[in-house]
Every structure is written in structure tokens, then in C-alpha cells.
Amino acid sequence: MKKQQARRIIDIHSHALPFVDDGSVDVNASLAIIEEYRRQGVNSAILTPHYRGKFKLPVSEIKEEFKVFCDRVIKDCGEDIDLYLGQEIFAGADVNEVVEQGLALSLANSKYVLVEFDYALEEDISEKVYELSYRGYIPIVAHIERYVYADIDMAIAIKQAGGLIQVNANSVVGRDGKTFKKKVNQLLKLGLVDFVASDVHDGRVLSMEKAYKHIQKKFGEKVCEDVFYNNAKKIIEG
Ligand SMILES: [Fe+2]
To answer: How much distance in Å is there from the Cα of 79 to the middle of ligand 1?
Structure first.
């Protein structure tokens, strides 16, 4: 196994847990993602299976799969990567109840919840963010660049409503197209990005290392450490 890079990166959005959603087809695919994490310097990851549509497994089942997978990772890859559990929760009309009743998991047993929105159906994301925030949670809007209707003003409104913003590493480096890259870099320039995460699925390229280098070069070490590590560390520490 190749040596781990000395970079400090925590991935807060990952579909590397097998058998629970559309992320990873089997254990070997998941272990390949873990190996790639190690190669790119990702020291910790919060595994965030979907709570959306047909992917609404009971949390007890997800926790069981997580436990089995963690044991396998330690056996095959050692203990130099820390794994935590959470979910990427679709923010439908019932999102407040889903979170409050524990039907889906917050990130690493904290008050932070990763929420995603409809790509096409336009809505004011800040309203749902405010509702969750009012209930004592800290909502993190997943891959904001993917919602074409979410412009800079909406991003500012999300922050004012108590939310945080995550963008995908693949968008940072342009792997998901020029439009996403332009939007993400604009958000970074304005200091509106809190987390860069992978949203990795089996079959998608992991660009954490490349995104790290891009942000380091363009926005400096402090921004880089904040969006890849410091802000995520607060989640893990509760
Ligand atoms: Fe995702």
C-alpha cells in the first residue's frame, strides 16, 4: 500500500459505504475509495448515504453496515483513516420531521446536517435552512453549485439564515463542467464556501488532492485549511 500524503483533509460528503445507496456497489469498490483517500491525503471521512427517494433505509441498518465496513477497513487498510457516519438528506417538505425524529442521521452524531435540494425545482433554499437552524441544527447545503437557481444572493441568504455551504471537489477543478467551476470559484473568492468535499461514488474520480492544490495556489493556505480541514474538524468534535 502506498504511503499516505502528509496533507490534512476531512471529507464530509461521501458515498463510500457499500450496500446502502447508489454510491458503492460492493466492498471492494468501497475499499478502493478508501485506498484512494489515503493516497490523496484524506485522513478522515464522514460516510453519508442518501436519505432520498428509494434510499431510505432505517438508520439501524445503516449503522450496522457502517460497523461491518469499519471492521473491514481496519483489517485491510489499517487504522490511519478515521471513518464517521452521517447522511445526505433530501430537503423535502418533511425535512424538519425527518431530522428531528431521527429518521436520518446527522453528521458524526453532531448538530450538523447535510441537506440536498432539487436540482431543477426552483426554491429559496434559505427558507428551509432557516427552519432547521431555528430548531437548533446547523444545515450544510450540499454541492450548492448544482442548483442552477442558487445564485450568489441565495448563497448569502443561506449563510444569514444559519447555514453553511459545501461544494464538490470535482466542480472546483472543472471535472463537472465550466459552469460549475466558474460558480464555485466565485463562491470561494467571496469567502462563502465552508467545505470542499468529494461526494464520491464508485466510478467517479476522486479530486480532493487536485482541488486542494488548486485552492492552495489560487486562494492561499488559510482558505485551503479551512475548507478541507478546520471547518470539518468542528463537526467531528461536535
Ligand atoms: Fe451526495
So the answer is: 25
